[in-house]
């Protein structure tokens, strides 16, 4: 198995960007539940130190595209990621997806995740406890830069479009993007397990809301739940017919 590395992050650190943030989303193609975006950035004190030994230590964790890891491995890797990275997740509910569409809802989730991480890093760097004390200038001083797996996202404070780069297949190339994919996947899977307790007929604890054969059978038998994405399900019904 091949693994992503810090090659791109190192180049950006060398250009003065202290907070290089990987971003990825999970659940975009699901029939039910939220779309979740993850954001991850090696902690500032780590990225500012040219420490190959530390980088090698982190690479031994086995960070990779979440789809390439078993559920058990993902959970273990996620715990290790949290020791070395700032991380955050943002989500858009099925209601938001039904209202705005999946593209806009995904963008909302990405903004939430990145903004959370920007404040998290700023609070730690400034040595304060209340994020209300963090100014725009404090965030700008971190010189954040986004690495995204699929598409640019507008209207992210400080970052804008200028300090973003899209890397196709980034979750298998860039460690920070892979780390974001792992924390997002673990968070969403746990969320779907809990939602399965409220909506047991659809087997969300097994399918995470995706359109598996068992999930489609449940839809045919029980119809949709309050957390299903109506357009996704209607499209499946039309295609079936």
Task: Supply the key terms.
241 residues, alpha/beta, Nucleotidyltransferase, domain 5, 5-stranded mixed sheet, 11 helices, 5 strands, 50% helix, 13% strand, Ribonuclease, endonuclease
Description:
One of its GO terms (biological process) is DNA replication, removal of RNA primer. With 241 residues, this protein is of the alpha/beta class. The chain has a single domain, classed as 2-Layer Sandwich (Nucleotidyltransferase, domain 5), CATH 3.30.420.10. The protein is built from 11 helices and 5 strands. It has helices spanning 7-14, 44-47, 52-59, 71-84, 94-100, 102-126, 136-140, 175-198, 204-207, 213-222, 230-240; strands at 19-26, 35-42, 85-92, 144-148, 164-166. It has a 5-stranded mixed sheet with strand order 3-2-1-4-5. A hairpin with an 8-residue loop joins strand 1 and strand 2 (35-42). The longest helix is centred in the middle third of the chain and has 25 residues, at 102-126. The radius of gyration is 19 Å and the shape is globular.
């Amino acid at each position: 198995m091949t693994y992503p590395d810090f090659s791109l992050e190192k180049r950006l650190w060398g250009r003065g960007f202290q907070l290089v943030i990987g971003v990825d989303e999970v659940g975009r193609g699901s029939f039910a539940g939220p779309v979740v975006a993850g954001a991850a950035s090696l902690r500032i004190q780590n990225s500012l130190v040219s420490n190959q030994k530390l980088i090698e230590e982190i690479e031994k964790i086995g960070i990779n595209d979440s789809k390439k890891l078993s559920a058990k491995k993902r959970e273990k890797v996620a715990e290790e990621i949290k020791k070395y990275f700032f991380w955050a997740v943002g989500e858009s509910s099925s209601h938001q997806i039904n209202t705005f569409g999946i593209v806009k809802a995904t963008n909302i989730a990405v903004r939430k995740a990145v903004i959370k991480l920007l404040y998290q890093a700023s609070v730690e760097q400034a040595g304060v406890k209340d994020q209300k004390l963090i100014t725009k200038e404090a965030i700008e001083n971190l010189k954040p830069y986004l690495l995204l797996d699929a598409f640019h996202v507008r209207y992210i404070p400080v970052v804008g479009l200028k300090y973003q780069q899209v890397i196709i297949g980034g979750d298998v190339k860039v460690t920070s993007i892979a780390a974001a994919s792992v924390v997002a996947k673990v968070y969403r899977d746990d969320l779907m397990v809990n939602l399965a307790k409220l909506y047991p007929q659809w087997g969300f604890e097994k399918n995470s809301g995706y359109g598996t054969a068992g999930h489609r059978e449940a839809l045919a038998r029980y119809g949709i739940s309050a957390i299903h994405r109506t357009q996704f399900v209607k499209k499946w019904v039309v295609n079936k017919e």
